[in-house]
């Protein structure tokens, strides 16, 4: 059964193909990433290392840096012990464990070029090994500094979307609405948004996934200084016209919201996106107002009300 009872213009080239979703799996995660499990790729690709290090989470990044630091120092500690711990002046370890830690901490001082002087190399082989480690340390710390700079300088979006969409009274009918705000104090200008609806449909006995762009009351604003409530007017041409939540759930509806804006701090264009499934759409509700004027007449934004909705019935 077709979801639309009239002829409409679809957009089936959205990048996800036409295969229907099953078990109400979302196509786009709330954080904007594609909900796709990738197989057949190698576990490690050397030419993709920089991208992974720059884009991974901060806890994971610091764990990788710490792990690499410990592994390198452990390797050099073993090498110093192989060459002979007696070639490290000042190493007082008697047991194998103490000798290993003497070499480990000497390695840590050498690779960071600290050089406290408590332990020093003697002999040609040990000095060459220490010199090589010192050079490796300079390169490694320069690389780590570049990665930190790359992570901090990479333009990212702090636009937050409401957790739910609502269908609320709008003009003489109703509208599908979601809300967004910029959590940073900087300015986003030339902000553009598009909204696309995706759903399963059976055409001539074949299950397909269809994509339909949802026209917005306003799809572009000059500057995002307050919150922005996106409104898709539910007219007779809208796929939400006279549709119940049961019908939306049966079609496994998902709504994509895609934003593009110019960040005046980084002087670069940023992108962010999210999606809403049918269970995240609330009927007969409206968003609470997020801003008000204080006693001095100044506009105040209350970000804690981003997800606050009230019933309209």
From TrEMBL:
Ranges for domain Inward rectifier potassium channel C-terminal: 159-310
Membrane topology value: Multi-pass membrane protein
InterPro entries: Ig_E-set, IRK_C, K_chnl_dom, K_chnl_inward-rec_Kir, K_chnl_inward-rec_Kir_cyto
Record Gene3D superfamilies: 1.10.287.70, G protein-activated inward rectifier potassium channel 1
Transmembrane stretches, start-end: 61-83, 124-149
Domain named Potassium channel: residues: 65-148
Molecular-function annotations in GO: inward rectifier potassium channel activity
GO biological process: potassium ion import across plasma membrane; regulation of monoatomic ion transmembrane transport
Gene Ontology cellular component annotations, sorted alphabetically: monoatomic ion channel complex; plasma membrane
Domain of life of the native organism: Bacteria
Record-given protein name: Ion transporter
């Amino acid at each position: 059964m077709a979801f639309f009872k009239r002829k409409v213009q679809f957009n089936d080239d959205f990048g996800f193909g036409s295969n229907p979703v099953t078990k109400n799996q979302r196509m786009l995660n709330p954080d904007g990433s594609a909900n796709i499990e990738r197989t057949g790729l190698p576990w490690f690709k050397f030419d993709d290392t920089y991208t992974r290090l720059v884009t991974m989470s901060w806890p994971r990044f610091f764990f990788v840096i710490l792990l690499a630091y410990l592994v390198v120092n452990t390797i050099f500690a073993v090498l110093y012990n192989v060459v002979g711990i007696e070639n490290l002046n000042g190493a007082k370890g008697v047991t194998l464990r103490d000798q290993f830690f003497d070499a480990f901490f000497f390695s840590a001082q050498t690779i960071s070029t600290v050089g406290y002087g408590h332990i020093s190399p003697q002999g040609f082989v040990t000095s060459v090994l220490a010199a090589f480690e010192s050079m490796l340390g300079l390169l490694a710390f320069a690389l780590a500094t570049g990665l930190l700079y790359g992570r901090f300088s990479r333009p990212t979006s702090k636009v937050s979307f409401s957790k739910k969409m609502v269908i609320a009274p709008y003009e003489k009918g109703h509208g599908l609405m979601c809300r967004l705000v910029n959590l940073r104090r900087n300015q986003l200008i030339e902000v553009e948004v598009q909204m696309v609806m995706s759903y399963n449909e059976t055409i001539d006995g074949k299950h397909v996934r269809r994509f339909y762009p949802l026209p917005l009351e306003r799809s572009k604003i000059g500057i995002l200084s307050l919150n922005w409530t996106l409104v898709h007017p539910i007219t007779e041409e809208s796929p939400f016209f006279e549709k119940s939540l049961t019908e939306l759930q049966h079609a496994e509806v998902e709504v994509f919201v895609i934003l593009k804006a110019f960040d005046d701090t980084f002087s670069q264009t940023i992108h962010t996106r999210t999606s809403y499934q049918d269970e995240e759409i609330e009927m007969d509700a409206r968003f609470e107002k997020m801003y008000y004027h204080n006693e001095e007449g100044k506009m105040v934004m209350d970000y804690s009300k981003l997800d606050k909705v009230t019933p309209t019935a």
